[in-house]
Amino acid sequence: MASSQPTIVLASGSPRRRELLKRLGLPFVVKPPAVEEERWPGEDPPATARRLAGLKARAAAGEWVVAADTIVELNGLVLGKPRDTGENLEYLRLLSGRTHLVHTGLAVTGPDGGEETVSTTRVTFRELADWEMQAYAASGEGLDKAGGYGIQEKGMALVAGIEGDFFTVMGLPVSALWTGLGKLGYPLAEVWRA
User: Fold this and answer.
1) Is the model's pLDDT at 3 over the cut of 70?
2) 4 class by beta-carbon count within 10 Å (0-12 exposed, 13-18 middle, 19+ buried)
3) Which of 117, 119, 128 is nearest to 101 (CA)?
4) How many domains does the chain have?
5) What phi, psi does 159 have (nearest 5°)?
6) Span between the terminal Cα atoms of the chain, in Å
7) Distance between CA 9 and CA 193 in Å, rounded?
8) What is the pLDDT of the chain when averaged over all its residues?
């Protein structure tokens, strides 16, 4: 890659976020910060996602930093990363046949400032058979994902539809990322010329 492309610090251990940055052609290194991901009492889920993304970005060292945080919300109930397959199964039962919200907070920082935003997408699950929920939970695929499923993997079969940005559900609102980098002066034109 050309030297005019600064390396971005991805303040996340998420393989999905790494994959998306790679697909865009952005040079990056992975440095997940040690940040306590907790929701403040009374804080609404979109605000939590945005705050945690900003906290992660500030905790990471680098001239250019990208951080994100994804929260799944079902009627005010926050479904984080399931602790085990039993909790994953419980999440799937809650989501079956219902619409939920996926909020992904995004923080982008550059040498002269930063941008923070949150993107929200509505996701509707179809009615799931009990065997499907049990098999999916047992697969372990949902254990490292907010809400206990991955829309870009086997979990795609659970989803009847979405309203909004697909990449928000994957954990990184790509359009907002690209726009944020551009506003902060990142040399985006060079990325696709490389």
Assistant:
1) no
2) exposed
3) 119
4) 1
5) -95, 125
6) 6
7) 21
8) 93
- Using DSSP, state whether 165 is helix, strand or coil: coil
In whole angstroms, what is the distance from residue 143 CA to residue 80 CA?
A: 10
CATH number for the domain that contains residue 44: 3.90.950.10
Which residue in 125, 161, 154 sits closest to 140, CA to CA? Answer: 154
Strand 99-110 versus strand 64-74 pairing type: antiparallel
Q: Which residues are catalytic?
A: 69
State pTM to two decimals. 0.92
The reply to whether 147 falls in a domain is: yes
Report d(CA 17, CA 146) in Å as an integer: 14
Which tokens sit at 7?
A: 């390396």
State the residue range of the domain holding 162: 8-193
Q: If you average pLDDT over residues 69-90, what whole number do you get? A: 96
Q: What are phi and psi of 57, to 5 degrees?
A: -65, -40
Residue 1 within a domain:
no
Alpha carbon distance 10, 27 (integer Å): 10
81 domain-assigned? yes
pLDDT reported for residue 1:
41
In a domain, residue 162? The reply is: yes
**Which pLDDT does position 2 carry in this prediction?**
42
